């Protein structure tokens, strides 16, 4: 079946601009996670949703970052007033239910802030 | 919070030899330990995981071991092949409900033909 998909695959923007990154989880998966991966590092947790609500947003670095999942499926990560330090690969993962923590990742969006 | 350390950061082996990657974690409440393989420019792929109710799990050429007392777990790849070359990440989390994974920094494995 279809895996997690993310769009766009690459995004180049200028410092100070606003960006939106989209994640389509595996159909039926209730949990959705956003991670950020810098070069040479492991993914770092940003936020996770159980259904429509953000169950844990403790990884968001500051209030420029926000995410939504209005219908419990697709999620959008929004970054305001982008900074060069926001450049990274943003990964989305989904998990089928509360009984397992198996997480399946999308291909990521490579964000470059010039 | 949880902290995961992973060693070595790079590993080169001859084709056919075994490779071992080790991780330690800090939170004794963690009980789910997955391993991901990430090829250059690709998504992390779950290759094997272990839960704290078992000490070892094997899937063909890949095995994981877990020592809860010492808070460390390891990935073993036998009969390595060039296509095993990638970056491998270990992670830890609670398995109750859905919780974020805490990842190690990764090990770049090169299998030399």
Indicate the topology:
The complex is a heterodimer of chains A (about 110) and B (about 110).
Chain A: E1 5-7, E2 10-13, E3 19-24, E4 31-37, E5 44-50, E6 53-56, E7 65-68, E8 75-79, E9 88-95, E10 104-105, E11 109-113
Parallel strand pairs in A: 2-11
Antiparallel strand pairs in A: 1-3, 3-8, 4-5, 4-9, 5-6, 7-8, 9-10, 9-11
Chain B: E1 4-7, E2 10-14, E3 19-25, E4 32-38, E5 45-51, E6 56-59, E7 62-67, E8 72-77, E9 86-92, E10 102-103, E11 107-112
Parallel strand pairs in B: 2-11
Antiparallel strand pairs in B: 1-3, 3-8, 4-5, 4-9, 6-7, 7-8, 9-10, 9-11
Order of helices and strands of chain A: EEEEEEEEEEE
Low-confidence stretches of chain B: none
Percent helix of chain B: under 10%
User: Number of DSSP helices of chain A?
Assistant: 0
Give a structural overview.
The complex is a heterodimer of chains A (114) and B (113). Helices cover 0% and strands 48% of the residues of chain A. In chain A, strands 2, 4, 5, 6, 9, 10 and 11 form a seven-stranded mixed β-sheet that branches. Chain A has a four-stranded antiparallel β-sheet with strand order 1-3-8-7, with no helix packed on it. Chain A is globular and about 40 Å long. With 113 residues, chain B is mainly β. In chain B, strands 2, 4, 5, 9, 10 and 11 form a six-stranded mixed β-sheet that branches. In chain B, strands 1-3-8-7-6 form a five-stranded antiparallel β-sheet, with no helix packed on it. The chains are: A mainly beta (114), B mainly beta (113). At the A-B interface, strand 4, strand 5 and strand 10 of A face strand 4, strand 5 and strand 10 of B.
